[in-house]
Amino acid sequence: MTYAAIILTGGKGERLGGVDKAALSYRDATLLDHVLSVVDDASQIIVVGPEKDLPGVIWTREDPPGGGPLAGLAAGLREVTAERVAVLAVDQPGLTRNTIARLREAGGNAVLKDDRTQWLIGMWNTAELRGALPEDPRDLPLRKTLQQLNPVEVSALPGEARDVDTPADLDTLHSG
Questions:
Q1: What is the pLDDT of residues 94-105, one digit of tens each?
Q2: How far apart are CA 44 and CA 39, in angstroms?
Q3: Where are the transmembrane segments (predicted)?
Q4: At what angle do helices 97-105 and 31-38 cross, to 10 degrees?
Q5: Which pTM does this prediction carry?
Q6: 55: pLDDT strictly greater than 80
Q7: Which one, out of 1, 50, 63, 136, has a CA that is 20 to 30 A from the CA of 175?
Q8: Please, which residues bridge with residue 58 across strands?
Q9: Backbone angles phi and psi of 118, in degrees to 5
Q10: What torsion, rounded to 10 degrees, do the Cα atoms 114, 41, 146, 126 define?
């Protein structure tokens, strides 16, 4: 069964001094390139954030820009035609194709979990996700909306759920 992928890239990167996380260098490419490679088998790839020159990607933005991850998710979801959709953040260097495969195999709604639930690493039923969205998603917490869908928790492998939020995370990314 095919799936779509939404990659959220519109964060402000405040704890990293306002850096564009999508453009951060990772393994001779960028974090965005990495996440795109993990979902290259998706029937649609929708990137929510400032547009870059990348073929084969559907670009969209939340309105107004900066409305938070739930607003970004709503913007991306408007483009999805597949029955299932992966929702991912761009700052996830630990993601692999295996991560996506395990989330897909869980069936229904699924999220990755390590020491906490990783709401921005999940696979969702598109219709259920659309139904859970509030009318105005700006600045509302993503977690509260996604919790309503009672996702299966898929255990993360070591390092799989790490993200890049702070200068220390960035140092770890470049030394790893």
A1: 999 999 999 999
A2: 9
A3: none
A4: 40
A5: 0.92
A6: yes
A7: 50
A8: 46
A9: -100, 90
A10: -160
